[in-house]
User: What shape does this take?
Amino acid sequence: MGWARLRHELVFVLRRLAGRRRAERELDEEIGAHLELEARQNIEAGMSPEEAHYAALRAFGNVTLTKEESRAMWGTRSLEILWQDVSYGLRMLTKNPGFTAVVVLALALGIGANTAIFSLVDKVLIRKLPVEEPDRLVVVSASRGQGISTVFTYPDFADYRASNQVFEGLVCYTQRALTLSEGGQAERVQGTIVSGNYFTALRVRPALGRGFFPEEDKTRGSHPVVVFSYGLWQRRFGSDPGLVGKAVNLNGYSFTVVGIAPSEFTGTVPGVAPDVYVPVMMQGQVSPSWKFDPLFGPRSRGLSWLEVLGRLKPGVSREQAAAAMTTLGSQIARANPNPDGTPRSEPKFVLEDGSRGHTYLLRDLKFPLQMLMATVGLILLIACANVAGLLLARAGTRHKEIAVRLAVGAGRVRLIRQLLTESVLLSTLGGGAGLLLAASTSGLVVSFAQTNNFSNLTLDNRLDWRVLGFTLAISLLTGILFGLAPALSASRPDLVSALKDETTLPGKRARRLSLRNLLVVGQVALSLIVLVGAGLCVRSLQKLQAIDAGFDPARVLVMSADVSLSGYNNERGLRFYSELLERVKLLRGVEAVSLGAQIPLGGGISSTLKVAGYVPKPGEDMSSDFNIIGPDYFRTMKIPLLHGREFGQSDTAAAPQVVIINETAARRFWPDQSPVGRRLILGRAPDEEVREIVGVVKDSKYRRLNEEVRPAMYVPLAQDYRANMALHVRTTGEPGALLATVRREVQALDASLPVYNIKTLEEQKSGSLYTSRMAAMLLTVFGLLALLLAAVGLYGVMAYAVNRRTREIGIRLALGARGHDVLRQVLLEGMTMVMIGLALGLGGAIAATRLVASFLYDVTATDPVTFAGAALLLAGVAFLANYLPARRATKVDPMVALRSE
Amino acid sequence: MTKGQLDQLDPPQGALEMLVLRTLLFDPLHGHSTARTIQQTPGGALRVDHGSLYPALQRPERRGWVTADWGTLENNRRARYYRLTRAGRRRLTAESSRWGRLAEAVARIMRPREGEG
Assistant: This one.
């Protein structure tokens, strides 16, 4: 009944609102009829027509009031007021298009920057996996003695899954690139190898077809099935529903497509959007170059390679589950000792929030993103202060209008509401423009996240309802924030003087001026903080760019190939690579050529090592950087050879096992003698290899430019075969010019083999600084923006102040003051605000930049050069913004000024 | 101002609404006849501006206690005829009993001895 009544009322109100004019006309008609009936009855009672008419009116009472009160009963009043405010506000905005444009632009920049950065923050730090009840998901990791590992062996995973009592489901997965060949076209796609229960345990229902069946998760290699991502299905197969059930060629094997994942599901590792999901049982087909069986083989408990995600049973806490898993892990470790009989270390489980999946790829982005979010927040504050200042200035010119409205009886609340409606209108316009700005720059912002270490990071850069909601919320909030102070102060004018047009008396309204000054001080202070932040990032970037990588990146072309995709075995693969080297070496314009498993400055491989006669200190890190290379590698990279020799054609698989080490390793393990001829043991799971040192090379940077160089080991490809290698070509001329020629040589050997990841080492080097460079660039843009806003704000306030005091200045000039004195006085006034702002800003910057210290390279967070530079720049620009209106003050003509009112 | 007018009473808003509903109890009426009917209360103790009737008709309509339909008068003018709905009847019953109790309670406080004497 309550609902029916509500609905009835709503219909009544809406009908009156929609047909407002008609409703009013009908009321008029009704009242007209009433009066006529009354008059007629009066005539019948013996009155004259005129008398009858007036008597009817008397009996009726106040006609206008009746209409007014009847309308009030319609309940449409507050909506009408809102509409009045909005349309009045819009009229005011279109009346001052210049003012509106400036304000909307300032707000668009502030809100747009926030929207753009928020859309990225949302994707990286906030959004949960689009699965049912993501909060019950946990990321499983375990520590064994030192360090914590997020990867597990397959047999351990299978035991945990089968025997635990705490998880509703436990899934494992890892990423592998695959080659999809369709219609003679080979393409590298992002694959995720998953346990068979992946989709069921995560509760992801495929958009089409099915997930994996339990029997597809039992025996190695028996069920070649695959689930495609929605994206790949759309892009490559035009959303053909007939794809399910068809066979496709992956890595040269035929797989049956059994399902299409839903469009919103892009795997469980944010930043990696898999194209295909393959059951872990098909591992042999997916990574054929592995030398042993990691699922059921005798050494399979020696290789951890699978990430594990679990869904907790309802009511089980993470701590309970971790304790239960630790107990279970110990039992399983004791039941399965190492192949040599030594006991396995027992894992201690740690369960972390998995509602966002495995977020390790995005961990490095967290801090820069927080920094950017804070910066754009500051920009928005500056924009707000700026717009508030402009509104105050305009309130000065609208003084009379407001005074008139107050004088004729408009309520103060009503007036504040009107002014706030205007400012919210402005901020909504600004928000809309900002949204457009953000949408057009969102690709750029996402590319910020794509640092070199995970250059195939894929983030959805569409703006969705969450971002729209965010933008709407900050738009409304800023509208109220910058509108409130001006509205409060504007609605409290001194009526008498305003109506008398006494706007130029000196010393009056000091209070409002001080609010305006405060806004300028705030803008200067906030701008200085942003500028200092930008300066520090730029300085840090300069230092990073000046680092000597230890190799010469100029004129080196690199490109990757994976011959396992063509189904080559080790022997065939080795032959391919050595033939390729021979062919490329002979090309005109090639200075040197070699191979490397790892391109420097793009992540890396580690290997532990043992050195005969060297006893590690307790807790000493005995891991080293590791690379597999071809002959002539150091000559190609221009890394100087200090002792011994490079690898050559003679270092075959059958020849003695050899290794080349870097200077750091030589100094650390053989401080007093030459290491050439000595032996060391490389312990890479699951094998250990004894190798003889044949050479020592100078240190070079391996993972990152700003790393501390660690011991590095290089082994020849022939002795540690790897199907996936990168060709390094040093050219005599422009490296790009040789690309087509080199690619032709690859195709001459194997026409179907895809070559990918083509770039120059210069690009690789600058790519490795991508995050730093983008941070420096974005912050510089934001810094200049802040500077511009502050300058405009200061200019506005000073121009306004000079304008208001035209008469005062005119009197002083007439009394004999020189233009020089006036200039100095106005400048002094403006620069006082600037100096106060700078002092506050310096304090704020010292507090704020301490937080970014860890992001900086070789620059302290309180770098005096940066601080001084930013302050000087700001002071200089502020002086200019101040000087222009001050100069205008000296040009005041006393006669004109005195006559002006 | 004449003496007669001074003696007339302005009915409070709620009461006017109740009177309107009561007037419409048996027949649909247009605004004018509603006003006349109320004015012709025995004793003529109530002063009702005809105009004040219209707001008092809007709220009941909004609440769904009365509905209104256009009808034609003899001089070819149109007027809205108000009709009491079932909800309006319920409302009237509730209101009049509430009103009765209120009036009684007020009367007892104002003239406490009347009941004894």
Q: What stands out?
A: The first strand of chain B starts at residue 29 and ends at 30. Residues 1-6 of chain B have pLDDT under 50 and may be disordered. The helical segments of chain B are 3-7, 13-23, 31-39, 53-63, 86-110.
